[in-house]
Amino acid sequence: MCALLLGLAGTLALTAPAAAQAPPDSTLAPSDSLETGAPPDSLFEFPGGDSLDLPLPFPMETAPGDSVAGYSPTRNMVRVPGGDASRLAALRLAVNDDAAPPPEGLYSPGFLMDRTEVTNREFARFLSAADSNARHFDRRMSLVEVEPGRFQAAAERADFPVAYVDWFGAFAYAAWAGKSLPTEEEWMLAGLGGRPAPDSGYVYPWGDDAVDTLKANVLRRGGFPDSRTVASYARGASPEGIYDLSGNVAEWTLTEEAQPLPGGTEQRLIVVKGGSFLDPPENVTLTARALRHPRERLGSVGFRCIIRLQPEP
After folding, report:
1. Model confidence pTM above 0.85
2. pLDDT band at residue 39, thresholds of 50, 70 and 90?
């Protein structure tokens, strides 16, 4: 399947809106432009009868700019350095000894990534923007449907990361916002910044120091496990200032992987990164990963988005 390679070179996209103008703090070079990335329609045409019937891409009747005054897709995003084929290969091997090397000459010019996980407040705007978006609501979310088709985040959890969202809801939000979900390699690049691959000693986004109560929201003995307001753990930020890559809620990616089933068939699962408040410290490293069915909705899984940089020819 193509999802593992998707977006590493930043060249594949179903739709590419007009290039967005980045704010000064996103540090775009003059030669860079922005483009959203999305998987092709065939991404979830799974063998073995495990096909997923929702059409891709989702119908997006209302764009954020139509419903949120002053919306800028690059707001609250930071630039992440890319890498060449050798760096991308090192990232693959760090999580899978049997990973195929990327094509020779492959290069990622980098991307912008959300500083924080998508919040309940932000997801409520998405749900309210179009009738078709409401399919992604789950009553376990910290959201209230104040009237048919209009949603509002619970005041005390408005800036907590949205959870109980399946992969389809995360994908749909990203497309609506003019962004994309990251691949596993892109997510790891964000955690490393410009530093070497994880096998060089950079275990967490902040380095190799052990997890403590100031760096990440992880499972602790005697504590009550729950997510926290985004950006609560400033000392655990990445070199570029991206918060909660380790802990709080785990995050959906675009990368999928086959899992064998009895009878010679297989199912395709999605790689989830970062670990959550339900995970011990060893599960929130840059190389740790979990596999989830794209329809799963868990209170410990959310997401964040990226915009891939496209160098001018």
Report:
1. no
2. very low
The residue type found at 193 is G
Give whole-number Cα distances, 73 to 14, 172, 253, 308, in Å: 17, 15, 19, 12
Cα 79 to its chain centre, rounded Å, is: 15
Structural domain includes residue 126: yes
What b/e sequence results for 254-286 when a residue is b if at least 16 CB atoms lie within 10 Å of its CB, and e otherwise?
Answer: bbbbeeeeeeeeebbbbbbbbbbbbbebebbbb
- Domain count for the chain: 1
On whether the CB atoms of residues 45 and 51 are closer than 8 A, the answer is yes
203 has pLDDT over 80 = yes
| Tokens matching residue 296 | 């799963």
- Rounded CA separation 213/242 (Å): 17
User: Does a structural domain hold residue 41?
Assistant: no
Q: Are 277 and 218 a contacting pair, CB within 8 Å?
A: yes
Outline where 51-164 has alpha helix (H): 64-67, 85-95, 120-129
What's the first-to-final CA gap in the chain, in angstroms? 28
Q: Which two tokens stand for residue 256?
A: 């999928």
Average pLDDT, the chain: 78
Tell me, what's the pLDDT at 115?
97
Q: With DSSP H G I counted as helix, E B as strand and the rest as coil, what are the percentages for the chain, rounded to 5?
A: 20, 20, 60
Residue 141: other Cβ atoms inside 10 A:
23
Contact 296, 52 (CB under 8 A): no
**Looking at this protein, which amino acid is placed at residue 288?**
A
The residue range of the domain holding 207 is 48-311
Please check whether residue 253 is in contact with residue 183, taking contact to mean a CB–CB distance below 8 angstroms.
yes
Buried b / exposed e over 196-220, threshold 16 CB at 10 Å, is: ebbeeebbbbbeeeebeeebbbbbe
Q: Per-residue pLDDT tens for 246-293?
A: 999 999 999 999 888 888 899 999 999 999 999 999 999 998 999 999
CATH number for position 145: 3.90.1580.10
The token duo for 62 is 């209302």
Helices 184-192 + 85-95 axis angle, to 10: 100
